Each structure stands twice: as structure tokens, then as C-alpha cells.
Amino acid sequence: MVVESVSVLDFRNLATCEVELGPGLNLLWGPNGAGKTNLLEATYLALAGRSCRTRDDREAIAFGCSLARSEAVVESSGRRRNFLCSVTRAEGRRQLVDGQAAGPDSAALRPPLAVFMPDRLALVKGPPAARRSHLDGFCAALWPARAEARRRYSRALAQRNALLGRIRAGSAGPGALEAWDRELASAGVELIADRGRALELLAPAFERSASALDLGPVPALRYRPRSTAAEPAQLAAELAERRDGDVARGYTGWGPHLDDVALEADGRALRRYGSQGQQRAALLALLFAERRALLDDGRPAPLMLLDDVTSELDADHRRLLVEHLADDGGQALITATEPGHLPAPAPRREIALRGGHPLQPTPAATPEARAEREAA
Question: Are 225 and 192 in contact (CB under 8 A)?
């Protein structure tokens, strides 16, 4: 799958912006405030139907405007699909795929998305919920049919918590909990198993990516499940044992909704003890590991959206980063303030941005061609 073009209207500082993308590395460069990060966000919005930077998509509507929209054209197996997401102040967001309202299966029609932005470091140093959600997204990309297990678990958890609240308030009895325990346990063991399998694939790829990027002590990736139940009956029994405590609290205090994924270096949690450089390196290695695991499984490579990824790297590490991107052979959008910040061992498309407007792109910027332009 390849994203061929992105068109944006009134999205943050991008009044009208249309860019054509190449199948490999696409370099978006320009001064700070040019709109590079906004274009990455707009690309994500069009494809995923939500922002990767804010929970309230209306924040992305340009000042003084009532609507923002982003549109992406994706080519897959000779067929083009159109992804359009619009956001209005009055009604919020709406996503269309080929002119029809997007449904649960729409994600299978677009490439998976991998995002590196400075504020995405919350995935490493933030609360467990962010890491659980990210891992579940990877599971859905790897095994699309398994995404239903997470939806079933979320529905059952919400129903059980609502019932616990009524029991605590005295408006319901505990007898109905057994049915929700069974439903929660049935979906829960599937979720635990999927996460465990995913981490078995990711952990070695994560260490290899970190080593290849040579970004310091090689970190490790470990699954920290709250329960290790392999059968629904076992998880249901664990829930039953803790039922009184759940009633007292008014919510479910046991199960995979409390799992975590630990990122460690030298046996110490990067969340608490890692430097910002180590945390950035771990996030980057994780994204590359997921990309490699999906490719090895015959899945489409994720579209890599990499913002400000080179700002803390020296020339040698920037070269390793680009080589790693080229080796995987997938599509990537990466930002930099100058084209020279990113070495180019392989052809790529360069798009310069100024004041929210793209300048003439260079479809195939080889090192030789770029040297000629810089010398002119």
C-alpha cells in the first residue's frame, strides 16, 4: 500500500496544501512553523479518522474557519481508494472511505500507521493505558480478525463496572455479576493470549532494531500481564475471588485492562529512569520492530510518520536511521529543518514547506542531484 497524495484545507496553518508522495522516503523540510508537523497530523487524520496529537479534533480547525478537512489517496494492488476526514466546530469529525461512511473494517483498506512525535514519548514514559492501547493496535494490524476480542472485552468491562456501581449504590444485587464475569473472562483470555503472542514477535525485533540504530544501551520489551489465565474459567474464578473488593470500589480491579508493557534498559524501567534520549530511542526502535514484524508476516508495511526524529542525532546516527528506513522498503514521511540534515543513500522525494504552503517537490533526490542543486 502506498499513499500517493494528501490534500488539506484549513487545517491548523495549512490553508490549502496538496502534496504528491513517493513510495519510499518522503522528506518534508522547512523552517520551524512551516507546517511540517501539521502535514503529518493531517495525513494521519485522513487515514485514521482522528488526530494523533489531540483528543479534540476541532483544535485543528484553522482560526476563523468552521471546517477543516484532509484527504488521502491510497494505492493498493492496482486500486486507488480515497480517504477523507472532515472536522466541523458544530458536528465534530466525519470520515469517508470512497465516499461512504467509514466503518470498523475501514482500517484494513489503509496502511497501518506508525507515529514518532516528541509528544508521543508518553508511550514510553506515560501511564500503562497508552502502552496497552498501542499494543492492541499492533495486534489489530497483525491479526485484523482478532480486533473483535478487544471490543468484546471493552463492552463487557463497561457493563460490569456499571453493574458494580449500582450494587454499591444498593440499587442492584450481586447475582448478575456472574454472567458478566463469564463474558469478561471469555474475551479477556483472548486478549491476554494475543498480547503475549505479539510481544513474543516484537521483543527480539525490538532489540535488533535498537542495536542496528546504535542509540545506546539496548533496551528490552516485556509484557507485564495482571493475570496469566489461559482459560476463561481461570480468569472468571480470579474475578469471583475479588468480587467483594470490586463492589467496594465500584469498578473492576483485575484483568487485562490493567496490563502493562515494560520498556527497560539494564534492568531499569525507561519510564522512570531513562533519559529523554533513551526514551526517544526506545520509541523509534519499537516502531521499527512493529514494521519489521508486520512485513515478516506478509502484512502491509506501516506508513512511518516521523517528526523531528533527527534533532538529537549526530551525522552517523542519521545515516543509520535512513539506512534502516531504506532496508525495510516501506513508505515514510520524515521532517527536518534542512534537507542536509538527512543523508540520502537512496532516492527520495523532497517537499519544501514555507508558511503552510508546499514548494515544488523533487521526485527523486539522489545524493548527486542534491549536491548539484546545492552547488548551483
Answer: yes
